[in-house]
């Protein structure tokens, strides 16, 4: 398969995951929201690429900067100072804040280091923290260290994993 064909297959995979996630939201009669840092809106874009998604998607928060995280979704300055933007605590607060500031029943949040720079020994390029908030349940967090195969690869893997987490949470 050509490189372009491989890219098309990956895009279809994300599209299929997004479609399945939205179908699960529809079955539960809930709306979805996202809080995105390292993906810069790719998750909400994958969801809204699907015709009819407006009945299952409430909004997406693109919180690339720390100020945006604090102002838009209520991540505390103390959390950012103590743990940094790429941390379990920040992902947790992002998911909870997005859920609280929307009409959604589920929130997917991501914060990470997509590269090519910005990484450190403690927080390497490819590190992504995920948060998932489902109304009435404790926030779920997960950590992934994706191979540093470039910024696009890390961001695609992040979108894929967030949607998979959402599907798992919705059963």
UniProtKB/TrEMBL annotation:
Residue ranges of domain CinA C-terminal in the record: 17-167
InterPro entries xrefs: CinA-like_C (IPR036653), CinA_C (IPR008136)
Protein name per UniProt: CinA family protein
Lineage of the organism: Bacteria, Pseudomonadati, Pseudomonadota, Alphaproteobacteria, Hyphomicrobiales
